Amino acid sequence: MHILRLFNLFNLIVIITSQPLQDYCDSVQTSGSTSCKDCVEITILGGRPNCAYCAKPYSGMSYCQQPFYPPALNTPGITIYACYNDSGITTDIFRYKPRCAESECYIDQCLISGKIIWYYIVPSVIGFILLVFIIWLIRCKCLRNKEASKYIEKENKIEMQNKKKLQDKANKRKNERANVTNKIREKYLRNDFIEDENV
């Protein structure tokens, strides 16, 4: 029962704090603040107002505005288009008008600009993950090859032992046949010798 109450309280907090305040960015801008912290203030659950901050906005643009998300990149807080506007020219591929340089654009935090995140950090993380994955695949392949070579070596050893046993048995039978043949030959030679003496 207590767990259910805590879960409901947590859901209520998430709903309240995750609701973007539509006028928050405008109120920061009208107050004359040019501080990143005032624009993209951080809470425990992330960016409170979900605003995009431009450290050096272009002329006619403001420091703190609602982030712009193109339809194909509707990912709040992580798109480099956060500090862009829609120019309204839908047929033009360059319809997104920047509010400031990508190196001056901040979203949900004031430490790293969108350019550094998307052009340096994200590719580095993806490259590191790919490198680790490739190393893991190579290691698995090497281990598999090692196990296969051990298995082949073991099979070859067993096969050699079986061949040796068969060869030993064949040699033993050959020796036995040779002994029997020699005994028969000696017997006939002895009989011939006795007959010669009798004549």
Descriptive overview:
This protein is mainly α and 199 residues long. It has a domain at 2-111. The protein is built from 4 helices and 7 strands, in the order αααβββββββα. Strands 4-3-7 form a 3-stranded antiparallel beta sheet. The model is unreliable at 6-21 (pLDDT under 50).
SSE layout and pairing:
Blueprint: H1 2-18, H2 24-30, H3 36-39, E1 42-43, E2 46-47, E3 52-54, E4 64-65, E5 84-86, E6 96-98, E7 105-107, H4 114-198
Antiparallel strand pairs: 1-2, 3-4, 3-7, 5-6
List keywords for this structure.
199 residues, single chain, mainly alpha, 4 helices, two-stranded antiparallel ribbon
Summarize the structure.
This protein is 57% helix and 9% strand.
Mean pLDDT: 76
Q: How many strands, what sense, and barrel or not for the largest sheet?
A: 3 strands, antiparallel
Strand content: 5-15%
Number of helices: 4
Helix content: 55-70%
Based on DSSP secondary structure assignment, what is the total number of beta strands? 7
Q: Identify the overall geometry.
A: rod-shaped
For the termini, the CA-CA separation is: 124 Å
Uncertain spans: 6-21
CA-atom Rg in angstroms? 43 Å
In the sheet with the most strands, the strands line up as 4-3-7
Class inferred from helices and paired strands:
mainly alpha
* Secondary-structure element order, N to C: HHHEEEEEEEH
